[in-house]
């Protein structure tokens, strides 16, 4: 079938919205009609050429929500008409990692996905007979996409797609960092560094876990006010004395849980230093730049602090994304403030411009 999609032809250049070919789903695959897609920093990171694992040509986009149009042979968990959220982090439910509660990093299709292929090593996207690679196994900057069954979460059809798409990446990453990676305990003190999509999600996750005190740190007063709306009890504008101020606010000890959601290594270091001696846990959800390293004074670890990484918030997508969306529908998670701009597919590059200008939290592409 012919579809319109935003193709990355050359790193550092605008995406080109054009007509491409999309083949029918094969065994274990699903054809999805996209209804909405968030414009995430990871898409911009790849488009810029900064991602060492990036490739071209490819159809970007991974924060998608839509409706199943058809399924390939062997698909049992999904049927036409089902509402779904795309998962760049799949869940086969059968591999060693999927069967272990300690991780959400499925092993089933990881190697081919990293190459821009579907599980059988080929692509369903093409142009003039030449293959176009899939991005993060999703490629949602398109009217339709073909994806593995194990990379789609079936969700409540009552939830609007322009909200549910945010659970495909940024929002779930933040919520999950607090709820599933750190497992914040009731009555605890938390510090969240960064009030973008992931950081605001972490604030909401700490609130849902019944933390007593949630300190949010950011450079932007406007974003800090958004953090207050998500449950932050204390707002702190970042400066060179951020760590000292957090220690002062916590009686000199530091926080039980800290979360880094900026991708800046100097902020990661602050998050480690702000964790409480003896049992403080620092969870790093931000993605640092190529070749960057994090320096940690060993004594901080010897005296009990711990550091954990969190990919997609530790969320097992097919099982837990639907649960998070149900909590949104129940009024426990306020998603509306995150939607800053509504765009068409033709305006996808405008979404990148808004992101670089830090104009709003998330631009969402709506498909007719």
Can you summarize this structure?
The protein is an alpha/beta fold and 368 residues long. It is built from 11 helices and 18 strands.
What does this structure look like?
- The strands form 3 sheets. Strands 3, 5, 6, 9, 10, 17 and 18 form a 7-stranded mixed beta sheet that branches. A 6-stranded parallel beta sheet has the order 13-12-11-14-15-16, sandwiched between helices. A 5-stranded mixed barrel has the order 1-2-7-8-4.
- The chain contains 11 helices and 18 strands.
- The mean pLDDT is 97.
- The chain has 368 residues and is α/β, with parallel strands linked by helices.
- α4 (170-181) packs parallel to α5.
- The chain has helices spanning 41-48, 110-114, 161-164, 170-181, 197-208, 221-230, 242-249, 265-273, 298-302, 317-329, 348-356, and strands at 2-8, 16-22, 29-38, 58-59, 63-71, 83-86, 125-127, 130-134, 144-148, 152-154, 189-193, 213-218, 234-237, 257-260, 281-284, 306-309, 339-343, 362-366.
- The protein has 2 domains: 2-168 and 334-366, Quinone Oxidoreductase, Chain A, domain 1, CATH 3.90.180.10; 173-311, Rossmann fold (3-Layer(aba) Sandwich).
- Helices cover 26% and strands 25% of the residues.
Q: What is the CATH-assigned architecture of the largest domain?
A: Alpha-Beta Complex
Backbone shape: globular
Compute the average pLDDT.
97
**What string, H for helix and E for strand, traces the elements in order?**
EEEHEEEHEEEEHHEHEHEHEHEHEHEHE
Please, how many helices? 11
